[in-house]
Write a structure and sequence with these properties.
mainly alpha; 16 helices
């Protein structure tokens, strides 16, 4: 059995090899730039770990993991364009460096390339993998649209936000795990338990992400903190603040959503702290974490084999970057 760190190092080495031709250089230099920004490679490594949970890592799992990472980077490029984000992993976003048109094409070609890797896997798994991959890709798009829709609403319920997160973020984590388990040849029940584990892990991951965007260290986080506040995103933090703050605080929060003042982030964070949103976020994160681990516990496999997934679960939801 391998740890997350071990598999991440091996996968990162394989993934760093060039995926695209040299010409047109104006397009493919931008793809290599973005892929070269790095990242934790969480989703593809979870796919490999899920495969190894039941069997030795099959060559097909590496193909699927590569497809997953290319798809994930495609979504990041397009998200950055829609969010007008200046930084990604502490570096210029692709659209900022190469222009929006090239960024759109770079994202598109990554998605197409992902299917090339999927087509390399053995035919016995291909139909199920493609079906789940396409279902998940659709859900990610739906989640992104809901995320943008929420920016135009004054108030979003916690349940509505959670549904959006399960589509935009959790679905890909869950699908990555399930695809690895499909290749691992395990039962449908184990596949579905692993999927539910991934959904709850994704929810906990997003709570931590929302928290770090507001309260994290930008040098560690790799992005500007307060970005969600400046773009009026309805995060776990903002939704809970609006539900629990005083009438005066709610009035101020709603006012800040309409402004672009230089001190907007500081004023919103002050209200967050007064409402103890940071403490509540810790509680919610741990709730999702416990639910995730309970699904992992139910999977019918020797307990020793679960230890790497248990370890990475705690790492992902307790990270400070």
């Amino acid at each position: 059995m391998h740890s997350f760190e071990e598999l991440s190092a091996v996968f990162s080495g394989k993934f760093s090899e060039r995926h695209f031709p040299n010409e047109p250089s104006s397009l493919y230099n931008s793809t290599e730039y973005f892929l070269g920004l790095g990242g934790k490679r969480i989703r593809p490594v979870l796919c490999l770990m899920a495969n190894e949970l039941f069997d030795e890592i099959h060559a097909d799992a590496w193909q699927v993991a590569t497809a997953i990472e290319l798809f994930h980077n495609f979504t990041l490029i397009h998200d950055d364009i829609m969010d007008r984000a200046p930084l990604r992993r502490g570096m210029e976003t692709l659209h900022q460096k190469f222009g929006e048109s090239t960024a759109l094409l770079a994202g598109d070609v990554m998605l197409v390339k992902a299917y090339d890797y999927l087509n390399n896997i053995q035919s016995s798994h291909l139909k199920n993998i493609i079906h789940l991959f396409n279902k998940t890709a659709t859900e990610v798009c739906e989640g992104q649209q809901l995320d943008m829709d929420f920016e135009k609403k004054k108030v979003v319920s916690l349940n509505d936000y959670l549904r959006m997160i399960e589509l935009k973020t959790s679905a890909l984590l869950a699908a990555s795990l399930k695809m690895g388990s499909i290749i691992g040849g395990t039962t449908i029940r184990n596949q579905n338990l692993l999927y539910e584990f991934g959904k709850k892990l994704g929810n906990a991951f997003q709570v931590q992400d929302d928290y770090l965007d507001a309260f994290g260290d930008p040098k560690k986080f790799g992005k500007q903190t307060g970005g969600d506040i400046r773009s009026n995103k309805k995060t776990f933090l903002l939704i809970h603040a609006l539900e629990t703050c005083t009438a005066a605080q709610k009035k101020e929060l709603l006012h800040q959503l309409k402004t672009n003042a230089e001190d907007k982030t500081e004023k919103v964070l002050s209200i967050f702290r007064d409402c103890k949103v940071d403490e509540w976020a810790l509680y919610l994160k741990n709730k999702f974490l416990d639910e995730a681990l309970s699904h992992l516990d139910e999977i019918a496999v020797v307990e020793k084999r679960k230890e790497p997934l248990q370890a990475v679960t705690h790492f992902l939801v307790q990270r400070d970057y």
